[in-house]
Design brief:
Layout: H1 7-12, H2 14-29, E1 31-32, H3 42-48, E2 59-60, E3 63-64, H4 72-87, E4 91-93, H5 99-110, E5 116-120, H6 136-140, E6 142-146, H7 157-167, E7 171-175, H8 185-195, E8 198-202, H9 207-211, E9 224-228, E10 239-243, H10 248-259, H11 265-278, H12 281-303, E11 307-308, E12 317-321, H13 329-338, E13 341-342, E14 344-346, E15 360-364, H14 366-370, H15 378-394, H16 397-411
Parallel strand pairs: 1-13, 5-6, 5-7, 7-8, 8-9
Antiparallel strand pairs: 2-3, 4-10, 9-10, 11-12, 12-15, 14-15
């Protein structure tokens, strides 16, 4: 059952309570490999559901527009100080509602409509908000995009430099949403300086790995850093913008009043809790285990003949190209979900298929590592993935159902924050 228990919700609205309970059970019974998902601790869950959701706190600590901030101000200041200490930065804004608004705040702080922005192309692993055409960032600004090399799936830094010097963007993004390799922050910083651009590092996917010392940090290289607070950082659904003191005022003005009103104080408290958890020695062990699991899973998939973008991974994320298996990504992802393995279909670099029916699968190991799974379980997960992909090709739904039962049996031995097995 869901933990903490939901007696008031069950009494007031049993229909919603039933769906919440069903979701808790689903999360417990499935191998959750969506790279942007995780499990939060009971403490983060409690802070998120606290009475802080009742409060309105437009403005910043000591400069609010509403009274009654005696407890909210210390909470936000704690979150700020913990973020600065954990990531080694001079300034932190913990108010953005999510990653996309945080990225929009960077545009508002540094650019005018029509200015040139440079980012990794979406089909190559970039993010919508890095200047892609369907995003406001691609419609309101002049986007130029760099790519990965076809031969190895890695960013060509010589191409990045040539493009930056030719186009002279005011803002350069590094990072993305499907980047399985280490980001070379010093190289991006050198190019940005040469081109006269602001460098923004979007570390939403790898923030927890950075905090745990399992990935190099952009601090000291990027002018501004954006991140969500969930994913590998294991916090609530929120975001932060980190920067040098030089850009603090511009960032704060862009967030409020530039883009949003009152912050979500319950989320701010939960961010503070998650940052405290990430500062503890056990979190570093977790971050390194996430990477070890991803590498082990990638190796096991390679042994079974799967093509991986860039040939493997340096972080939590693995991107599979199913072209050689003759199965598109979408039906494979849907069948894997029925089999108790949750991931997402995803475009791969130079994908000949359409974005809503692409060739690839994206998976990550953050959530299963939180459950306590280690490298020794990764070959079994790779085998299940392989069995289901083959079942899709053979239209063998019985094999899919069999894998689902085996998955439930395995996960019964691994506790989940937010779920308690009934006695």
């Amino acid at each position: 059952m869901h933990q903490p228990a939901l007696p008031h919700l069950q009494s007031q609205d049993p229909e919603i309570a039933g769906l919440v309970e069903a979701e808790a059970r689903r999360q417990f019974e499935k191998i959750r490999l969506i790279a942007s998902e995780n499990y939060v601790s009971p403490a983060v869950l409690e802070a998120t559901g606290s009475v802080l959701t009742n409060k309105y706190s437009e403005g910043y600590a000591g400069r609010r527009y509403y009274e009654g901030q005696q407890n909210v101000d210390p909470i936000e200041l704690l979150a700020i100080e913990r973020a600065k200490a954990l990531f080694g930065v001079e300034h932190a804004n913990v108010q953005p509602y999510s990653g996309s608004p945080a990225n929009l705040a960077v545009y508002l702080a540094f650019l005018q409509p029509g200015d040139t922005v440079m980012g990794l192309s979406l089909p190559m692993g970039g993010h919508l908000t890095h200047g892609w055409s369907v995003s406001a960032t691609g419609r309101w600004f002049n986007p130029v995009r760099y790519e990965v090399r076809a031969e190895d799936g890695r960013v060509d830094m010589d191409q990045v430099r040539d493009l930056a010097l030719k186009e002279r963007p005011k803002l350069i993004w590094c990072g993305g949403t499907a980047v399985p390799r280490t980001i070379d922050f010093p190289a991006f910083a050198e190019i940005a300086r040469e081109a006269g651009a602001v460098l923004a590092a979007d570390v939403a996917h790898i923030a927890g790995l950075i905090a745990g010392g399992a990935h190099p940090s952009p601090a000291g290289h990027a002018d501004v850093i954006t991140t969500t607070t969930h994913k590998t950082l294991r916090g609530p659904r929120g975001a932060m913008i980190l920067s040098t003191q030089e850009h603090a005022k511009a960032i704060d003005k862009a967030v409020f009043p530039g883009l949003q009103g009152g912050p979500h104080d319950h989320t701010t408290a939960a961010i503070a809790v998650a940052l405290d958890e990430a500062s503890r020695p056990g979190f570093a062990a977790y971050a390194h285990q996430v990477v070890a699991n991803a590498k082990a899973l990638a190796a096991a998939l390679l042994e079974r003949g799967y093509d991986l973008v860039s040939g493997g991974t340096d972080n939590h994320l693995v991107l599979i190209d199913l072209t050689g298996k003759g199965v598109p990504g979408k039906p494979a992802a849907q069948a894997l979900d029925r089999a108790g393995i949750e991931l997402n279909y995803n475009a791969v670099p130079f994908d000949p298929r359409k974005p809503f029916d692409p060739s690839g699968l994206r998976l990550g190991t953050a959530a299963i590592t939180t459950r306590g799974l280690t490298e020794d379980r990764m070959p079994r997960i790779a085998a299940w993935i392989d069995e289901v992909v083959q079942a899709v090709a053979a239209e063998d739904e019985a094999a899919v159902a069999r894998v689902a039962g085996e998955v439930r049996e395995l996960l019964a031995g691994y506790p989940m924050p937010g779920w308690a097995t009934a006695p």
